[in-house]
Amino acid sequence: MGSSSSQASLLLQKQLKHLCKHPVDGFSAGLVDEGNVFEWSVTIIGPPDTLYDGGFFNAIMSFPQNYPNSPPAVRFTSEMWHPNVYHDGKVCISILHPPGDDPNGYELASERWSPVHTVESIVLSIISMLSSPNDESPANVEAAKEWREKRDEFKKKVSRCVRRSQEFM
């Protein structure tokens, strides 16, 4: 293991220990496999007073060997209908984009990944994303269009995701 991956491993173990001692409302997190601190299983509870309220959405956070210099990838394994979630479940929010200037010019460098982010701040950002989608630069164009133009259709699809997420709890 290189020195950056052992530093990443130590940091992730520290964050896991902190979350176990000080759980945060709205989600739970743990390792997918006790032998691999770079793969986390996260369950996000649908935020109250949102369309996702009552849901239990599972996701996998995959951390790179050079964490915290690079962001993890986060992918919902539960069915998810949201403008900022790709069809394969991958979450698309600014803080998960590589640090530095956006090659497409949509985001400020300050909105992108920074090593100050923790598992907690990432998951809280995803919870916030569920509460208020960004339909300006959507990962799921269909969901963004429905969110803007056919809110009833959007709500129906989200309700189905919430119901399905409850079946697995």
TrEMBL record:
InterPro entries: Ub_conjugating_enzyme, UBC, UBQ-conjugating_AS, UBQ-conjugating_enzyme/RWD
Signal peptide boundaries: none
Domain named UBC core: residues: 7-167
EC number(s) reported in the record: 2.3.2.23
Catalytic residues of the enzyme: C92
SMART domains per the UniProt record, alphabetical: UBCc
A Pfam family it matches: UQ_con
Keywords: ATP-binding, Nucleotide-binding, Transferase, Ubl conjugation pathway
GO molecular function: ATP binding; ubiquitin conjugating enzyme activity
Function, in words: Accepts the ubiquitin from the E1 complex and catalyzes its covalent attachment to other proteins. Involved in the formation of multiubiquitin chains. Signal the protein for selective degradation.
Family, per entry: Belongs to the ubiquitin-conjugating enzyme family.
Protein name stated in the entry: E2 ubiquitin-conjugating enzyme
Species the sequence originates in: Kalanchoe fedtschenkoi (Lavender scallops)
